Amino acid sequence: MIQHNLDVMHIEKNVFDNVFNTVLNFDDKTKDNPQSRQDMVLYCDRPQLEKDNSGKYPKAIYTIDKEVRAILFNWVKGIKFPNGYVSKLGRCPDTNVKRIFGMKSHDCHVFMQRIMPIAFCELLPSNVWQALTELSLFFKDLTSTTLRVDERLERDITQILCKLERIFPPGFFDSMEHFPVHLPYEARIAGPVQYRWTYPFERYLGTLKRMIGNKASVEGSISEAYLMTESTQLFSHYFEPHVMTRNHNVERNDDDGVVEDLEGNLSIFSHPCRVWGEAKKGFIP
Fold it and tell me: How many Cβ atoms sit within 10 Å of the Cβ of residue 138?
């Protein structure tokens, strides 16, 4: 029995925001500020991060400067994902002000588990990159559709947090960095997180908000739009096959291509397409 059903979606996003904002050293969001450096003098033995004779704090090994940040943003702009896998991440980085804007919870989820281990591989020291990679793999294993019965994740997260505590300042660790300790136990008791996190509910709330046509009567506007959607969904089953409906519609990336029914072809080559350029023949050795 679990006492609290912690939301993995928001916890993962908040942990990612703390890591991402601190590593990229955003002035208004980083956890590496003068107050945290003063706490290091009291609680940590890191003389390399204390104030020098000129009254300035040296650059930490877990942060990157603006020039490297611009290189990272240009790389993120060129990343390509399968259709429908993630939103367009290339629109988020702003290379002029060297900031990133508009990342939603699912964007942070993909960046945390898929991009962060690769993005920081050559930008951070090996010990910092290894700790962040282990944190990324922890959330990746935690949010998988199948879980192991053993307590490996419960042991791993304690070691990962210990590694992070040896790298980041004390101000980096708030309640959100403590919540991942409880997530493996809840997953072991309650099952995979896909049935407990709030992604489907947030998406459906967004669908309901888009139904609002009259802000003076929000509930009635949502009710009418919902009834209209259910009615069209039901009536679409009685139309002729050639009529385009919600259930029978062209694919998202359809460009009026044709499908050649050739025997012996793999299924991946059976999608509709149009010929482009001069035809050439080749053989794979």
Answer: 21
Compute the mean pLDDT over every residue in the chain, rounded to the nearest whole number: 85
**What is the distance between the alpha carbons of residues 142 and 137, in angstroms, rounded to a whole number?**
8
> In 10 A of CB 2, how many CB atoms?
13
Pairwise CA distance, residues 57 & 36, whole Å: 11
* Spatial distance between the Cα atoms of 269 and 156, rounded to a whole number of angstroms: 42
With b for 16 or more beta-carbon neighbours within 10 A and e for fewer, the 236-245 pattern comes to eeeeeeeeee
Instruction: List pLDDT tens digits, range 35-55.
Output: 888 888 888 888 888 887 787
Torsion of CA 189, 191, 195, 199, to 10 degrees: 80
Q: Which among 143, 240, 237 is positioned nearest to 184, based on CA atoms?
A: 143
Q: What pTM was estimated for this model as a whole?
A: 0.81
Provide the token pair at 131: 């700790």
Please give the Cα distance from 139 to 111 (Å, whole number).
Answer: 11
Spatial neighbors of 227 by CB under 8 A, at least 6 apart, are: none
